[in-house]
Amino acid sequence: MTRIDPRRLAALITKEGKQIVRDPSTFLIAFVLPLILLFLFGYAVSLDTSRTRIAVVLQDSSAPALDLAQSYAHSPYFDVTFARAVAAAKLMIIDGRVRGIIVIPADFGIGVKRGNAPPIQVITDGSQPNTANFVAAYAEGVRLAWMSGDAGTASGVTLSPRYWYNPGLRSRYFLVPGSIAIVMTMIGTLLTALVVAREWERGTMEAMMATPISMAEFIASKVIPYFLLALVSMALCTLIAVFMFGVPFRGSIFALLAIASAFLMPALGLGLFISAATKNQFVASQIALLSAFLPTFLLSGFIFEISSMPWPIQAITYVVPARYLIPSLQTVFLAGDLWGLILPNIAIMLAFGLGFFLLAFRATRRSLD
Predict the structure, then answer these.
(1) Do residues 67 and 146 touch, judged by C-beta distance below 8 A?
(2) What pLDDT, on a 0 to 100 scale, did the predictor assign at position 269?
(3) Tell me, what's the pLDDT at 306?
(4) Of 211, 268, 241, nearest to 329 (Cα)?
(5) Do residues 79 and 56 make contact, with C-beta atoms less than 8 angstroms apart?
(6) β-bridge partners, 342
(7) In what order do the strands lie in the sheet with 52-58?
């Protein structure tokens, strides 16, 4: 029987809703874990470097050298310790007291007066590559700002950098929207991966097979409640991101709902397929973790830039639906409704969803047969 009976479907959805309400683990995954993730990525996890400890070695006591040293001391990125000798600063970096050394040479002031300032030396702790890169980049930025503002340049050109969408370069502004993708993956795939397997383990699947429900009604009754649950959790995470963490939201609610709904199609379809194919909650949860959660975390561009990955790994990321969700979320939050960027990602996610639901339909029908 293929026709969908509205009354029968409503009864099945009501039954699934009661199971969700009676299962404490569902609320734990849907509401408690998302809050923990948001607080972790909002407060504990940060890619920003502020007040990094460095040593400034002054080998010159001229006014330009002292002025440049004060520029480093007043920078919000550095916590400066002054030293007179490079050897003493090297001991600091070996002991871990500082993460970098900036050496202002002895002829610095003379060079500035002649219009040809000598280069400064930047020594970083390579045991922490990310911090080393940040120290080198920020040290050069402070020097360029000092050269353009205080020392002047021969050409009279002043450097005035401007960062669009995230002027403060705060990692929270892209980590928190990205964490919403993690939350939706957990609810869409992990919870859905348990629903059909739970029916088999509890022995209620045989009773449902004896009823006149159609395959479409069965799948819809499993998908709709978790679709709504995921949207509620996403809305809660969005409110927390905007009002608690101060993440700007420059897009529209309609765009956010369109993106979230498109991503939930492959997430729910994959979870339902895993559940129907395994018939075991433990196995289903492990497969969902490996096939959905870890790729979303590692291969979606959430933490690691896809362009910096080896090309075989970059090729794999094209089959990870979250790869198309996270840029869309970041666009809506930080830039606005740029439909030229959002619509292609929505179309790709819907295509993934169609494929996963076809697989879930075949696996469920085979199980029922």
Answers:
(1) yes
(2) 92
(3) 87
(4) 241
(5) no
(6) none
(7) 78-83, 52-58, 100-104, 121-124
Task: Give the C-alpha separation, 206 to 199, whole Å.
Answer: 9
Residue 44 has what pLDDT?
Answer: 67
In tens, the pLDDT along 146-200 reads: 877 654 444 444 556 666 777 666 777 878 888 888 888 888 888 888 887 887 7
Mean pLDDT for all residues in the chain: 83
Helix/strand/coil (H/E/C) assignment for every residue in the chain:
CCCCCHHHHHHHHHHHHHHHHHCHHHHHHHHHHHHHHHHHHHHHCCCCCCCEEEEEEECCCCHHHHHHHHHHHCCCCEEEEEECCHHHHHHHHHHCCCCEEEEECCCHHHHHHCCCCCCCEEEECCCCHHHHHHHHHHHHHHHHHHHHHHHCCCCCCCCCCCCCCCCCCCCHHHHHHHHHHHHHHHHHHHHHHHHHHHHHHHCCHHHHHCCCCCHHHHHHHHHHHHHHHHHHHHHHHHHHHHHCCCCCCCCCHHHHHHHHHHHHHHHHHHHHHHHHHHCCHHHHHHHHHHHHHHHHHHCCCCCCCHHHCCHHHHHHHCCCCHHHHHHHHHHHHHCCCCHHHHHHHHHHHHHHHHHHHHHHHHHHHHHHC
- Those residues whose C-beta lies under 8 Å from the C-beta of residue 342, and which sit 6 or more positions away, are 255, 258, 259, 328, 331, 332
The strand pairing partners of 124, in sequence order, are 100
pLDDT digits (tens, 9 = 90+) for 97-126: 888 999 998 888 888 888 777 788 899 888
Q: What is the pLDDT of residue 150?
A: 55
Which residue numbers in the chain have pLDDT < 70? 1-3, 44-50, 149-163, 167-169, 206, 365-369
Q: What value, to the nearest 5°, has the Cα angle with vertex 304 and ends 127 and 77?
A: 55
**Closest by alpha carbon to 324, among 341, 311, 307, 340?**
341
Non-local (6+) Cβ contacts of 45 within 8 A are: 175
